[in-house]
Write a structure and sequence with these properties.
It contains 25 helices and 23 strands.
Length: 660
C-alpha cells in the first residue's frame, strides 16, 4: 500500500471508475465529485464498457476486483496492452493480503479496500492524485531525458559524461570524431585512449576538479590522425548522480587555416628578404631552396637551370641530393629527358606542374635496395630508399621565357594547398631569376647582343613615333616601369617642340610629361600603357640598351646573358607585338671593368636616380631640371631622390678613387 497525500494535481484529472454495482458506483462518483471537484469522473459498469470508454485523455483507471465475466486483474492486463503506463487501481470490498499481493504483482499501482462511501471517496481521491502525479512526473522526466538524448545525439560536437573518472555516456558525434565505437569509449580509459599524451594530465585534472573549464587539447583518432579540439567541462547530474559533462569541439580546420595564414605571412616576409638581399641567380636559387628545405618534411629541394643548349643543369640544391644523383636527374641526356617520367624532368619537358606519389608510381616488384639501372626505371626505387613519398616539380617561367624547374621531394602525402604554395613560389622564383639575370647582364664581361626590328601600331612607343611622322627620329635613353605603365625619357630629331607636344597630347594611352628644346633635339618624357616595349624586354630577361623609332618601326638593341638563348627571348616578345624580327646577333665583350664594377655596386633605385638625373639635365649648369622635378619624374619624394643620388655618387667616386 502506498502512502497517501493530501496534495492535489495542478491540472484536472480524468479518471474512469469501473464497477458492476450501479448503486455503489453512482454514490461513489457523486461523492468523489464533491471531495475532488478537479476530477473529471467517468463511469463504466463492466470491463467491456470500460475498454470502450478508455480514451486517450483518461489518466487513471479504478476498477472493482470481482465483476461478472472477468476480474479487475484480467481487465488490468487488457488495459495495459493499449496503455502500458496508465495508473491502475483496484477497489474492492473483499480485501486481504493475498489479493493485494496478486494485484501489485500483476502491475496494479495501488489497492484500496471499500469502506463507507465517504471514506472510500476520500481515500480514492488521495490515491488517484498520488498515482497520477507519480505518472506525470515519470512521464515528464522520460520526455525530458528523451529530449536531452535527442539533443545530445544530434549536436555536431562530441559529448561525454564521466563519473568518478569513468565515461558513462557518449554521443554519436564522439564516435565519429574519435573513430572508436561507444563500447571502446565507455569500457576503457577514454583519456588514455583518445587524448594526446602531452595533454592527458590537463584533461584528467579538469575531470577530477569538476569545475567549469575550457582547454585547448589534441586528440588522436583511431587512425592515428591528430585533431585539435576545444574541451569544455562542467558539473552535471546524470541519473541522479553527480558527474562531469565534457563537450569536445573539433577546431582542426580553424587551426590549420590560422597556421596557413601565418605561414603565408612568413613566406611573404622570407621571399621579400630574398628578393631584397640576394642579387645573383645562384644566390636567389639557393635562398629559395633553403627556405623550402626548412620544412621538416622536405627531403631535398633543387633548382635546375635551362642551359643555352636546351639542357638542364643544377643551379642550387639543398638537402639530401643522393636521390637526384641516383635517379640520374643531374646528368640526364636529351633522350632521357624526352622519355622520362621523373617529376623534375617531366615538368621541365612539359613546362607544367607535375606531382608524383611514389607509392602510386613505384613498381611493387622492384627491389628498393637495388641500384637504378636507368633514370626512368629507377627513380621511384631511389625515392623510396631516400624516404621520399611525394615529388612536386614546377616549371620556372617568366615573361614567356623558360628558366628551368623547381623540384621538391618530401615526406607525406600530396597536399593541394602545399602544391599551390610551391606554384606561387615558383612564379616568384621565375621573376627573381629573370631580374637577377638582367642585373648580371648589366655587369657581365660577356653578353649576347641582339638587334631587333619591332612593328606594332598599337604599342605606345611606336604609336608616338607614328604620330611624329616619318621625318622624325625618336631615341629612347631610359625606360622605367611604373606598375601598369612605363615611363620613357627620349630625344626627338626632326620635329619641333610644339609638334612633339601635340603628338603626345593626341594619343590615347599616352600621358605627356615635360617637353623641352635643346641643341637641335627635343627632350621629352611620357608614360605609355601596355603593350610596353621596355617591360616586355625586361620580363623576357633582356636588358634594354637602345631603342630608335623611325619610319614606323623600332630598332631595338638588347643585351642578354650569355646563358639566355636568343630564340626563346624573341618568341616571348613576338607574343606581345605584331612583328618581331631579329636582324643581328653577336657576342660582346666588355673591355672596361670600371663601368661594370660601378653598376654592380648600385641598387636599382640608385642607378635609376643617377641615370634619370643625368638624362634630364640635373647636372648641367644651369640645371634643366631641379631635384623636385627629377624626383617627380621617377615617382619618389625629393628627400628619397636626394638620398639615392648621394648614395650612388659616393659609390661611383669610391670606385674611381679607392679601387686598386
Amino acid at each position: 500500500m502506498t502512502e497517501t497525500t493530501d496534495e492535489t494535481s495542478a491540472d484536472p484529472v480524468t479518471v474512469l471508475l469501473v464497477d458492476d454495482n450501479r448503486d455503489w458506483l453512482t454514490l461513489v462518483v457523486h461523492r468523489l465529485r464533491e471531495v475532488a471537484p478537479d476530477f473529471d469522473v467517468r463511469e463504466a459498469n463492466s470491463p467491456d464498457d470500460a475498454l470502450d470508454r478508455l480514451t486517450d485523455d483518461v489518466e487513471c483507471v479504478v476498477s472493482d476486483y470481482y465483476m461478472p465475466g472477468r476480474t479487475g486483474i484480467e481487465l488490468l492486463s487488457e488495459v495495459r496492452e493499449d496503455r502500458p503506463d496508465i495508473p491502475f487501481l483496484l477497489f474492492t470490498g473483499a480485501g486481504n493480503e493475498g489479493l493485494a499481493s496478486s494485484a501489485l504483482s500483476a502491475g496494479a499501482d495501488d489497492y484500496i479496500v471499500k469502506t463507507s462511501v465517504d471514506d472510500s471517496a476520500a481515500a480514492l481521491a488521495t490515491r488517484v492524485r498520488t498515482a497520477v502525479d507519480k505518472h506525470r512526473t515519470e512521464r515528464a522526466l522520460a520526455e525530458s531525458e528523451a529530449r536531452y538524448r535527442t539533443l545530445v545525439e544530434n549536436v555536431r560536437d562530441a559529448i561525454f559524461v564521466a563519473r568518478d573518472g569513468v565515461v558513462v555516456l557518449v554521443n554519436e558525434a564522439a564516435t565519429t570524431l574519435t573513430g572508436y565505437d561507444r563500447a571502446a569509449l565507455t569500457d576503457g580509459d577514454i583519456v588514455e585512449t583518445v587524448v594526446h599524451p602531452d595533454d592527458r594530465a590537463r584533461v584528467r585534472d579538469a575531470l577530477d576538479r569538476g569545475v567549469p573549464q575550457s582547454l585547448d587539447i589534441r586528440i588522436r583518432n583511431r587512425g592515428g590522425e591528430t585533431r585539435h579540439c576545444i574541451l569544455d567541462t562542467d558539473d552535471v547530474v546524470d541519473d541522479g548522480l553527480p558527474g562531469t559533462i565534457g563537450v569536445l569541439r573539433d577546431i582542426t580546420a580553424q587551426v590549420h587555416h590560422q597556421r596557413r595564414l601565418e605561414r603565408e605571412r612568413d613566406t611573404k616576409e622570407a621571399i621579400r628578404e630574398i628578393l631584397v638581399r640576394q642579387s645573383s641567380r645562384v644566390e636567389v636559387a639557393e635562398s629559395f631552396c633553403r627556405y623550402i628545405g626548412s620544412d621538416p618534411d622536405a627531403v631535398a629541394a633543387w633548382v635546375g637551370e635551362r642551359t643555352a643548349g636546351g639542357g638542364l643543369a643544377p643551379l642550387a640544391v639543398v638537402g639530401d641530393e643522393s636521390y637526384l644523383r641516383t635517379a640520374g636527374v643531374f646528368d640526364a641526356d636529351a633522350a632521357v629527358r624526352r622519355d622520362s617520367t621523373e617529376p623534375s624532368l617531366t615538368a621541365f619537358r612539359e613546362g607544367a606542374t607535375v606531382v608524383r606519389a611514389v607509392g602510386d608510381e613505384r613498381d611493387t616488384d622492384a627491389d628498393a635496395d637495388a641500384p637504378a639501372t636507368a633514370p626512368d626505371a629507377g627513380w621511384t626505387a631511389a625515392a623510396a630508399v631516400g624516404g621520399i613519398e611525394t615529388a612536386v616539380a614546377v616549371a620556372l617561367r617568366h615573361g614567356g621565357v623558360d628558366y628551368g624547374v623547381l623540384g621538391v621531394y618530401r615526406r607525406g602525402a600530396d597536399d593541394d594547398r602545399e602544391r599551390r604554395r610551391l606554384e606561387e613560389l615558383a612564379e616568384t622564383l621565375g621573376y627573381a631569376l629573370s631580374t637577377a639575370e638582367s642585373r648580371e647582364a648589366l655587369v657581365a664581361d660577356e653578353v649576347v647582343r641582339v638587334r631587333l626590328r619591332v612593328r606594332d601600331g598599337d604599342a605606345g612607343l611606336l604609336a608616338v613615333g607614328d604620330a611624329l611622322g616619318r621625318d622624325a627620329e625618336l631615341v629612347v635613353h631610359t625606360a622605367l616601369p611604373r606598375g601598369d605603365s612605363e615611363r620613357y625619357f627620349v630625344t626627338v630629331r626632326g620635329a619641333s617642340e610644339a609638334a612633339v607636344t601635340d603628338a603626345l597630347a593626341a594619343l590615347d594611352g599616352v600621358t605627356p610629361g615635360a617637353v623641352t628644346p635643346g641643341d637641335g633635339v627635343v627632350r621629352a618624357q611620357f608614360d605609355t600603357v601596355a603593350p610596353s616595349l621596355g617591360t616586355a624586354i625586361a620580363d623576357a630577361g633582356g636588358v634594354l640598351h637602345r631603342v630608335v623609332v623611325a619610319d614606323g618601326e623600332a630598332t631595338v638593341v638588347v643585351d642578354l646573358s650569355r646563358r639566355r638563348p636568343a630564340g626563346p627571348f624573341v618568341e616571348a616578345l613576338a607574343a606581345a607585338f605584331d612583328s618581331v624580327v631579329m636582324t643581328a646577333r653577336s657576342h660582346r665583350t666588355v673591355e672596361s671593368d670600371i663601368g661594370a664594377s660601378v653598376l654592380a655596386g648600385l641598387t636599382d633605385r640608385q642607378r635609376e636616380s643617377l641615370e634619370v638625373a643625368y638624362r634630364t639635365g640635373y647636372f648641367e649648369r644651369p640645371k634643366r631640371r631641379s631635384a623636385a622635378e627629377v624626383a617627380e619624374a621617377i615617382g619618389v619624394s625629393r628627400s628619397t631622390f636626394t638620398q639615392h643620388l648621394r648614395s650612388a655618387q659616393r659609390k661611383v667616386f669610391a670606385e674611381l678613387f679607392d679601387a686598386e
